[in-house]
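Predict structure. Chain length: 413.
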Amino acid sequence: MKRITIIFVTVLAMAFTANAQNSNVDEAKKVISGLSLTVDSYNKAFNKLKPALTNDETRNKAETWALANRIKIEQYDKYMDNRRVGKKIDVKAMGHTLLDAYDYSLIALKLDTIHVLDNKGQPVIDKKTKRPKVRTKYSKEVVNRLVDHHDSYRMAGSELYNIKDWEGAYQAWDDYCLLAARTDDPRWVKPDTVLAEVRYYQGIAAWQKGDTIDAVRLFSMARHLGDDRKEAYDYALVCLSDLGNEAEVVKLAWEAFVKFGTRDPQYIRILINDFINREDYSGANDLIDDALEASPDDDELLNLKGLVVESKEDIYEAFPYYQRCIELNDSNASGLFNVGRFFYNKAMETRQNSHLYGKKLADLVNPIYREALPYLEKSYAINPRNEEVKNALRDIYYKLGEAEKLQAIESAP
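Prediction complete.
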């Protein structure tokens, strides 16, 4: 008898808990049925519903999650209403309200899809669609809410990105694209150009939050969807370089070079470096010659031509190309460095091959060092991060007795 009493009490407790959670669902409905709700009112409604999302009696019901989706969607709309009348809003909270709404919709739609079975327990096949028949109760309203707010996910991604919520922006843009990928409702369809742009920005968000591999994937998706902006290649190259994936860097550089040519010399520089690393100087030379045929006065190409010639022969053969480079562009830091390096190397060789000492040696080589100085100093002024330029200047200043200049470059960051 005692055992029966215990079981009876337990059943009563379970029933009470289930009723309490169902009551929470009903109370949440009542709260959002008010005429003049505020953002806080929706928070109150959701807090009433929240225990039902984890209770065994209610968490497996589509109604629970459909209501959670409705509360969050309507709360987002209230945020937007407040913004339209000039009220200050919490952008992050607003964006994440929309993200939560999407997550709750997925659970609601999954639970609301019930397969129709025949008397043998087998799925009934729809004669028109040839798919298993299903019945739903809440799916239509959940889907309609998402359709009405599809573009809101794209805008929310931008706003979350602007406040540096990389994870939130990433998720909002991902939700937008996943919604657009649905094929069972023509209202979801979006042009590839729009999806390409969203995937591109999602790739930047992935990169910002430190997921370099995923960023590469997203930039690739953007390009294949038709985003032909140069940055879709450039960001991907940075990510691949950070990952140390040289083969993919070269592969993508070829794609970019075919598309953009020598507008940005980084692409051809990557390709030429690849040829040189493989000791394929002919390949590098042919690539540059083809490019120079189309752009004979491209200073960067001439500088690269000099580097290839120097690799195959020596700096004396390469010097005319370096010289022509800075004639066309006297702000080309690399070209200036290479011209200065020519005179610096010439001074070093003269010093090593001379039998003179002391003042006589200095009188012979110092004028050559001084020829190098203006080119190296200008190159350093343009690009002070070039350690090779800095080292050459340091050595020249020391040999010429330029104490003040030596001190200045030594103390430079």
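Summary: Strands lie at 114-115, 134-135.
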